[in-house]
Design a protein that fits this description.
Layout (H helix, E strand, L loop, with lengths): L1 H23 L11 E4 L26 H4 L4 H7 L3 E4 L5 H18 E6 L10 E5 L5 H9 L5 E5 L11 H6 L2 E3 L6 H12 L3 E4 L20 H9 L3 E7 L4 H6 L4 E7 L14 H17 L12
Parallel strand pairs: 3-9, 4-7, 4-8, 5-6, 5-7
Antiparallel strand pairs: 1-2, 8-9
Helix pairs in contact: 4-5, 7-8, 8-10
């Protein structure tokens, strides 16, 4: 049984790679299509940096389907290799508007969505959007219900996301973050977007909640605080409640009730004179997490109750 399930998961993953390759074929690999202007240096290219083989761990039997996955990693390879990149905002117009249209259809047909405080949505940037991360659909709702071509920082490996959905953030061109290491390249790219009056979405908790059936807000990481201090940009908090129940409800033939609460913008923050950067980052991170917690029911606030 486990072998059969593993085989089915692999087939889903391969199919998603194929779909992703087709979507990426709509745009050129570099330049205007991706919004990345790459300046090559003399350092050699990193090896094994494409597809599921990027870490030397290929999960396709004959190492052929990685060719379909390769175009999806232009953003990853540009940001993580020995190249200096300049990200242009907005970018990837065609594919992102297509994905936003599909996201709107999915949200309208699969969930009962209630959005509170829409008047808090800013008309123009720069803004960093922060929110809790209880389900993969949090990201999809942002695509569907905001008017911006927002840049998203996301976990590159996405271990808790079904294989057949992983193509979505890759096709969107999410800025990749490797958990456990300082992803300076993506943090700098986010700062560049904000300098161009853009919108950046960050989930301070990082990966999806470890307890998807009963998720609560975790302490998270100070990456969002780092961006906030470096960019001196205002912050928009969002609380997602009920997204963790979407797929269990669909399995029962029901539509889950999802509530999205948009908080009041706050910030900006700067490094105070004489204050250590790490100390200031910890302070700002605490403020960000408490703002998110205030938008969640008490039982979902975790350590910020």
């Amino acid at each position: 049984m486990n072998l059969e399930k593993s085989k089915q998961n692999s087939e889903f993953a391969y199919a998603s790679y194929a779909v992703q390759g087709i979507l990426y074929s709509l745009l050129p690999a570099q330049g205007e299509g991706t919004g990345l202007r790459v300046e090559y240096q003399d350092e050699p290219e990193p090896k094994n940096s494409y597809g599921p083989c990027y870490a030397g761990k290929c999960d396709c039997p004959e190492k052929k389907l990685c060719l379909l996955y390769q175009p999806a990693l232009v953003t990853y390879n540009s940001l993580m290799s020995n190249k200096r990149e300049t990200i242009q905002y907005p970018r990837r117009h065609l594919i992102r508007w297509l994905l936003k249209f599909l996201a709107r259809l999915a949200v309208a047909s699969l969930i009962k969505l209630n959005i509170e405080n829409l008047e808090n949505l800013p008309e123009k940037g720069p803004f960093m959007i922060v929110g809790n991360h209880f389900a993969f659909v949090d990201f999809v709702i942002v695509l569907a219900k905001t008017p911006w071509l927002v840049e998203v920082l996301g976990d590159y490996e996405m271990p808790n996301v079904p294989g057949y959905l992983k193509w979505i953030p890759h096709a969107w061109g999410a800025l990749p973050v490797n958990q456990g290491i300082a992803s300076r390249h993506s943090l700098r790219a986010a700062q560049q977007v904000l300098e161009q009056d853009g919108f950046v979405m960050v989930f301070p908790e990082g990966r999806l909640a470890d307890r998807p059936k009963n998720p609560v807000l975790s302490e998270g990481n100070p990456g969002a605080a780092y961006i906030a201090i470096r960019s001196s940009c205002p912050i928009l908090p969002i609380g997602f409640d009920g997204t963790y129940d979407i797929f269990p409800s669909l399995a029962k033939g029901k539509r889950a009730d999802v509530t999205v609460r948009i908080g009041e913008p706050f910030g900006p923050f700067q490094l105070e004179p004489g204050q250590k950067r790490q100390e200031r980052m910890n302070e700002v991170h605490e403020i960000i997490m408490k703002k998110i917690a205030a938008l969640l029911p008490p039982e979902r606030r975790g350590v910020y109750s």
